Amino acid sequence: GQQVMQIPQYQHVQEGEDFTTYCNSSTTLSNIQWYKQRPGGHPVFLIQLVKSGEVKKQKRLTFQFGEAKKNSSLHITATQTTDVGTYFCAGGNTGTASKLTFGTGTRLQVTL
Amino acid sequence: DSGVTQTPKHLITATGQRVTLRCSPRSGDLSVYWYQQSLDQGLQFLIQYYNGEERAKGNILERFSAQQFPDLHSELNLSSLELGDSALYFCASSVALGGRNSGANVLTFGAGSRLTVL
To answer: Residue B73: CB partners within 8 Å, gap ≥ 6?
Structure first.
């Protein structure tokens, strides 16, 4: 079945440093979504990318969808302590079912 | 408040027992998803319902079952519980407009039900 891997599993940065998490799918995706889960919380939708090579920005966050639609990345510029949490990508496929396959997640820790 | 309501928030039970987790989707959402998240693990997809009909199945154990009712709320039944079933169970909902091939939809998650099996 489809697998979605994320690297790194965990990253610890100092506030102000940049952070990037990478998402790789074993199959071509129709779209990719990103979610953030704060410690003790539930996943919250951040963004959806649909087009090959698409780049979207949300303030300090930059999301990219690969040309082959098999990989994606999330880059955070100048991290803040509020960025702490686990970031999940989720790949979508068209077909007989519309379920998302979540990536393994990257846990980000930010210290002062 | 995300609009997706899950009950109970916490549940402690013994091995061999059976529990039911309940989910009310966000108003207007027709599709409900169940995910399992073990400690510090990812989100394992269990099952999806759309307007009362099972739509997709993931790695859901035979001991687990779910259904979506006419009022669109959903229940996840976990039976013959084992220690390894201890986890956070999330329900999520989406609008899921379109037909069977409409593709993935944006999910709104509930706060989760934390199950501890002793």
So the answer is: B22, B23, B24, B25
Of B114, B118, B101, give the one whose Cα is nearest residue B38. Answer: B114
- Minimal Cα distance from B58: which residue of A? A99
What is the spatial distance between Cα B31 and Cα B34, in angstroms, rounded to a whole number? 10
Contact of A19 with A83, CB cutoff 8 Å: yes
- CA–CA dist A76, B74 (Å, integer): 36
Cβ neighbours of B45 (radius 10 Å) = 21
B83-96 pLDDT, tens digit each: 999 999 999 999 86
- Is B55's Cβ below 8 Å from some Cβ in A? yes
> Is beta strand B87-94 parallel, antiparallel or unpaired with respect to B108-109?
antiparallel
Chain A residues within an 8 Å CB radius of B103 = 30-31, 92-94, 98
Q: Digits of tens for pLDDT over chain A (112 positions)?
A: 778 999 999 999 999 999 999 999 999 988 899 999 999 999 999 999 989 999 999 999 999 999 999 999 999 999 999 999 999 999 987 654 456 889 999 999 999 9
In the β-sheet with B64-68, what is the strand arrangement from edge to edge? B5-7, B19-24, B74-78, B64-68
What are the tokens at B17? Answer: 């027992």
Helix (H) or strand (E) holding B116: strand B113-117
